[in-house]
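FW: tagging you since you asked about this chain on Friday. Here's the raw sequence from the shared folder, copied in full. Didn't touch anything.
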Amino acid sequence: MARNYAEALFELGQRAGSAERYADLMDAVAAAVDTTPRVQAVLMSPRVPKSEKARILGAAMKDAPREFVLFLQAVVKRGRHRILREIAHEYMVLLDQKLERVRAGVTLARKPDAKLQRTIEELLSRQLKKEVIAAYSVDPEILGGAIIRMGERVLDGSLRRRMTRLRRQLLSR
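HL: got it, structure written out here
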């Protein structure tokens, strides 16, 4: 269901020439709903009519494009405000596909400096022939190397994995 809403919003964003701006706005709205208890309380309350929720949302987003606000109001009026985060995620997937980008999760044993981050992103971009947007995390238990996650693909080049494989080979002899 979230994918359908994301596709509708994406089409609106493309028509307006603001697909990237809509992505930022959708992410901000989803984050505000996720992290602000007062916003959650209003949106989740059965005492507040859906039309009033939509009006409040419109008033809070005076500077946003009209089509974007109308889309959000339609989502709220249909009682789908619980899936705003999923809509934002699906929208980003569509935008990444259009812009030929790939998001990658990169796990390293230590915190990478800016030079290492650039190197990793350039190597991945060259290999995939797409722009790579990497999110970095640290896990000292991998000992060294890197684990890269792109969608459902996982490339495990960690020292821990290599040592485990070597151990299995030695024990199987």
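FW: The chain has a mean pLDDT of 93.
HL: agreed, and The beta strands are 101-108, 131-138, 146-150, 153-156.
FW: great, closing this out.
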